[in-house]
Design brief:
This protein is an all-alpha fold. About 80% of the residues lie in helices and about 0% in strands. The chain has helices at about 5-15, 20-35, 40-55. The chain is globular, with a radius of gyration of 11 Å.
Length: about 60
Amino acid sequence: MRINEAVAEALDAIGDDADYETARRLLGEAEKALGSGTTTEAAELLNQAITEINEVCPL
């Protein structure tokens, strides 16, 4: 699975639930960074999004 596919799946999974607003924003920024930013920027944003998702709904 490509990173952009994983981002799309994560966005689909969290949907428009207000609790995930920050994670959704970070995933969107990561998606943009994958296309026009650096790998480091994308990785940092993805890690932040994962942290936000885990804070809302710990596994």
